[in-house]
Write a structure and sequence with these properties.
- About 30% of the residues lie in helices and about 20% in strands.
- It is built from 14 helices and 18 strands.
- The strands form three sheets. An eight-stranded mixed beta sheet has the order 1-10-12-11-15-18-16-17, with helices on both faces. The protein has an eight-stranded mixed beta sheet with strand order 3-2-9-5-6-7-8-4, sandwiched between helices. It has a two-stranded antiparallel ribbon with strand order 13-14.
- It starts with a helix and ends in a 32-residue tail after the last helix.
Length: about 575
């Protein structure tokens, strides 16, 4: 009830604000400020048909095997992503979707593919180690055997001096071996009632770290990516000293974590930042073993083969788009979107991050097409590219269609990916901004949908609570006012468009699968994926059928962030500002 009251108050306030300040009318499409019904009109018969089709005639595991087993990993800009793109286009066409096409979001960088990576210890004993090339690593000169040398984390360029003349012909173990506890924690986690109640409560202290909301602190990101930029210099130093390759620890208990965080620099996919020396991640147990032997003066040799291939320096970035056309003459030009990101890292096959999001979108569209649903508004699916390197696909799509954001041009912020930079200018709106009703995203693993993040939109939370009632028996019960971050819905929310991410049961997403060699078909729960696709189909259908578009939050004004009244101003006379 409190959320419902808050929602009605928010609607009333928006209406009052529009009457009071006519200039705001330029920012808010009329559909977004239209009167909202107190009670939602739900087509329970169609909802029941969606449930039946999605649960009893699901194709989602066929999609899963086709994409994860047949195509495999899908690194942005790679031939593997191009295969996934074509596969996705084919699936949309087979189900009878309309306007199926690939759409460019701009130039990405270098095309790259791992052919294979192997690592074996040859002295003082023999052992085979789990290994993966780091993304965009150059190749070794075929199979090479060399002695290893341990180099601790270097902090600044003056630390290079101690290692000059010592690295030629060596394979470097770079960094300290992680400490591994023998008391392993449980890999699988399911949200219980206490955790769902936690998400229902809004944190008045602003702490939303447990829902992946990234801090808006430019100095923090300058430090984080400054360290990554220094890694690029470390790689160049090792190459200049004629070292053969670099090995870094990448996980334990058979879980090998491998993404750009393991590379020697964040922007290694750009030709101007191409990594100077081959590198791979290996199991932390293997890294620790070799490092301990070396610390006791025992010579260790490794046979290493990092086989990779580069393609072009200026590969395009693409999204996959498909639609179910709207049929209402007055609403068909309005758009309801759903999606997830198609790209992933290379160690596994990207089943939970975010292949699950891609196949949930595919299956939701298939359900609606199989039932010959004739939505009032157009339903548009988008499978994004480039999410893992900086939310490029959705950000490019939003910039091309809906609105453009302005970012800081300070030199110190240029080492930070654009999506984490400080926004300085106003949001510049395009005509299509008025036509986008909402975007629904999946990107937190393969777990079932237990709720949805309303992103601080109290009016829409009241609506979603009513939508949850007919599907509460499927486990969907929690509408939270909290935000969540780190994925594609954020690019919509940042320009004043309703963008939503579902609250998912975590399973082993954070403990085992995300960005690892374990992110494969075997991590998927068929029943959870069926439920997620059904809920997604129902949410986009409900949105497409409403008389009014979903209510929007006030437009963001990032250009005003630094102009707010300081905390002590006007409170303590004489206080320093």
């Amino acid at each position: 009830m409190k959320i419902l009251v808050a929602g009605l108050l928010a609607i009333s306030f928006c209406a009052f604000a529009v009457d009071k300040d006519k200039e705001k009318e330029k920012e808010k499409p009329k559909a977004a400020t239209a009167a909202q019904p107190a009670t939602e009109t739900l087509d329970l018969e169609t909802i029941a048909r969606i449930r039946d089709e999605g649960i009893n005639d699901s194709h989602i595991m066929e999609y899963a095997s086709g994409l994860f087993d047949g195509v495999g990993s899908r690194l942005t800009g790679s031939p593997d992503f191009a295969r996934a793109q074509q596969w996705s286009l084919d699936q949309f066409r087979r189900m009878g979707a309309s306007n199926v096409h690939a759409e460019s979001w701009g130039e990405f960088g270098m095309g790259w593919q791992q052919i294979g990576t192997s690592a074996q210890m040859t002295a003082p004993g023999t052992a085979t180690f789990l290994a993966q090339a780091t993304p965009w690593s150059p190749a070794t000169s075929g199979e090479v055997t060399a002695e290893i040398i341990s180099v601790p984390d270097l902090k600044q360029e003056k630390d290079f001096e101690a290692w000059k003349g010592k690295l030629a012909g060596k394979i470097i173990l770079y960094g300290d071996a992680p400490k591994i506890t023998p008391d392993l924690s449980t890999l699988i986690e399911h949200y219980d009632q206490a955790k769902l109640d936690h998400f229902r409560s809004y944190p008045l202290d602003g702490d939303q770290n447990d829902s992946h909301v990234l801090p808006d602190e430019p100095p923090l990101w300058e430090k984080v990516f400054g360290d990554m930029a220094f890694l690029e210099k470390v790689g160049r130093f090792f190459a200049d000293e004629h070292a053969i390759a670099v090995l870094r620890p990448g996980g334990f208990s058979g879980i090998l974590h491998d993404d750009t965080g393991s590379s020697l620099g964040w922007f290694v996919y750009r030709p101007e930042h191409k990594q100077a020396i081959p590198s791979a991640v290996i199991a932390s147990e293997a890294f620790g073993r070799m490092q301990r032997l070396g610390s006791h003066g025992v010579p260790v040799s490794v046979r290493l083969n990092i086989a990779t291939k580069f393609f072009g320096d200026h590969e395009p970035g693409n999204d996959v788009i498909a639609e179910i056309p709207g049929t209402d003459p007055s609403l068909k030009d309005e758009i309801v979107m759903l999606g997830g990101h198609l790209d992933c890292w290379i160690a596994g096959t990207g089943a939970t991050d975010d292949g699950a999001g891609a196949i949930v979108a595919l299956e939701a569209m298939r359900i609606l097409r199989a039932l010959n649903i004739q939505p009032r508004r157009t339903i548009r699916a988008a499978l994004w590219g480039g999410e893992e390197q900086g939310i490029f696909g959705s950000a490019g799509y939003v910039s091309n269609h809906f609105a453009v954001r302005s970012y800081s041009t300070k030199p110190e912020e240029q080492i930070v990916p654009e999506f984490l930079r400080h926004q300085t200018g106003p949001v510049s709106i395009k005509p299509e901004h008025a036509k986008l009703d909402a975007y629904f995203n999946t990107d937190n693993g393969g777990g079932k949908f237990v709720g949805i993040f309303a992103e601080g939109n109290s009016a829409v939370a009241a609506i979603f609570q009513q939508w949850a009632v007919p599907i509460s028996d499927l486990g969907f019960s929690t509408v939270t006012m909290r935000n969540t971050g780190s994925t594609d819905h954020v690019t919509f929310d940042q320009v004043g468009l309703p963008g939503f991410q579902f609250l998912q049961d975590p399973r082993d997403y954070d403990t085992r699968s995300a960005h690892t060699n374990q992110d494969t078909y075997e991590r998927l729960s068929e029943s959870d994926l069926k439920q997620a696709a059904v809920v997604m189909a129902i949410f986009v259908y409900n949105t497409a059928q409403r008389d009014a578009m979903l209510p929007r939050k006030p437009m963001p004004h990032p250009e005003l962030q630094d102009q707010r009244v300081k905390p002590l101003e006007g409170i303590y006379p004489g206080a320093k500002q």
